[in-house]
Amino acid sequence: MYDIVADCSDNVPTRYLVNDACVLSGKPLVSASALRMEGQLTVYNYHGGPCYRCLYPVPPPPQTVTNCSDGGVLGVVPGIMGCLQALEVLKIASGQGSSCGQQLLLFDAQDGRFRSIRLRPKLPSCAVCGESPSVTRLVDYEAFCGSAATDKCRKLNLLSKDQRITVQDYKSIIDRAGPHVLLDVRPLVEVEICSLPFSLNIPLSSLEEKKSKDIQLLQEKISQVKQQMAGDQQAPVYVICKLGNDSQKAVQLLEKMSGEEVDSVTVKDISGGLMAWAKTIDPAFPQY
Fold first, then answer.
1. 105-122 pLDDT per residue, tens
2. Residues carrying an active site annotation
């Protein structure tokens, strides 16, 4: 028998499952999460406050979710959030009450700052804790979220076979000295750990936000490549990241931008990313 539940999971299906189990059993849920250099903490289903579904009635598309395996996390941040999570559990268990029942505590490790956001009240139409709940028992949460309940690295399949190449294929392109753009869409902090020396780094987030400085930089690189090519061919752009997930998203974005924000290009994803490169092509390449 448990009185308080602490959620330390790193995937969306598990968060919905734990939330629903707590609501159905009438237990408070102390939830903490961390990603890169940021952390969040709140207490759901506590003293009439909202549950997780109140804030997120519909799960996000699987391809938009980044977990620690994909996005990385500075090791000390989960430690800080875990200590704060334990503190809230102890406060509730000892009868002192939690200060996070309707508050979201945000931690920014980069600036060393905490701030608090007031959450909206319990949602009357919530599917599990609302006035007329439709969820009265645990369901198939992987089917509900469209993703696996695992903290391990996901393998997205957003592109068709002809939109992707293997690391062996890309090695052949390098060996032939074919003019092209190699676009690394990882965050700068990862690029500083390791990168292929001839790559251009523009983070996926910059492409999503269409930051003019980065788009101009990409356009300049494409123009340089086209000058090396005979005729009026489209410049080939190969996109790489750590595991081959973000690079697929970037290919989709660049295909939409081709001929508009940038010159028309042929864009392909390098399947498996830099970790496949390290495993198959260059065993000395750093892995992280």
1. 999 998 999 999 999 899
2. 68, 241
